Amino acid sequence: MARTKIPYTKQAKSLDEQITILRSRNVIIKDEEKAKEYLSDIGYYRLGFYSFPFELTYPFLDSRRRHEVKPNTTIEEIVALYYYDFDLRSILNKYLSRIEVSIRTTMIYKLSLKYSSNPTWFADNTVVNNDFVKDFYREVYCHLRNKPTISRHHNKYYGQYAPAWKTMEFMTMGNLETLYDNLILDKDKRLISATYGEHSTAAFKTYLSAIREVRNACAHGNVMFGLRLSFGISTGIACPSLKPGTNQSLNGALRVINHMIRQISVNRANDMWDELYKATARLYSKVPYLRTMIEKETGIIVPASI
Fold first, then answer.
1. Cis bond leading into 240, ω under 30°?
2. Half-sphere exposure of 191 (CA within 13 A, CB side)
3. Does residue 20 sit in the same domain as residue 133?
4. What is d(CA 134, CA 125) in angstroms, rounded to the nearest whole number?
5. Please, where are the H alpha helices in 115-225?
């Protein structure tokens, strides 16, 4: 049964009014000018995402939720979680970019060599499902035509599309995921997945989805520590086992990211974890009682040596 909708009656609040509301919810604010600086920089609404784990009724978002925070919670602790999340996005985005470039390069190299007589194999309905080929120009290529590399190609050569090594260089991670999913032959998909040690093409597809979603979350400033993926990660080499509920969380996604970056460079994987451990340790130095929640949501267990 559909819920009955009601009019939205809330109005914008001044910084002073926002501080009054936070105090009514038991948030300790000793320095009002500093609090206004936080609110002006971060925004009252966005800061609310980070006050959620401090609430007495966490993790409930239904009718059980009240906005009152636990005793002795300060605005500085909430802001510390915000900056930790910022660090997570910054760190992960760097390594996800490396993974995306690798996936793109692998697809171009492996399949362009296999279909060497057909440089535009990505738009060939003997290689890729017909629906993808039919919609490719409208859904993808028309957005690439003004790229200088593509434009110069068409000024010099005949043909509807530039070759894979030019066209795919400008395709998004979502485009690459869709192309992979629409390859007709499972052995073509396995050419890609096996490069990263995964022989299950179905599992690898969930890895691509997780990478895309986390990449997008980083790019758009979404909350990272409580990330929920749209689709679950399948059991595979990256995640031999997953506790219930973790296959759609950052916990599961980090295992995929770790596996993928480790196939590219062990040193870069170690660098990533060093950065994640240090950022998490900084959070615990300010808000130690968040450790249990962060470990559950992210799977990051900071070594005692950090």
1. no
2. 19
3. no
4. 9
5. 130-139, 148-156, 164-167, 173-181, 186-193, 201-219
Residues 6+ apart with CB under 8 A from 85: 50, 223, 224, 225
Render pLDDT for 151-210 as a digit per residue (tens, 0 to 9). Answer: 999 999 999 999 999 999 999 999 999 999 999 999 999 999 999 999 999 999 999 999
Judged on CB neighbours under 10 Å (0-12, 13-18, 19+), 155 is: exposed
Domain that holds residue 234: 84-298
Say if residue 114 is in the same domain as residue 156. yes
Q: Which two tokens stand for residue 237?
A: 């080499």
Name the domain boundary from 73, 108, 123: 73
- Kindly state whether residue 306 falls inside one of the protein's structural domains: no
223 and 244: one domain? yes
Domain count, the chain: 2
Give the span between the Cα atoms of 65 and 72, in whole angstroms.
19
Query: What are 211-229's pLDDT values in tens digits?
Result: 999 999 999 999 999 999 9
Last residue of a domain, one of 48, 73, 98: 73
Answer whether residue 41 is part of any domain: yes
Is residue 94 within 8 A of residue 84, CB to CB? The reply is: no
Question: What's the mean pLDDT in 249-275?
Answer: 96
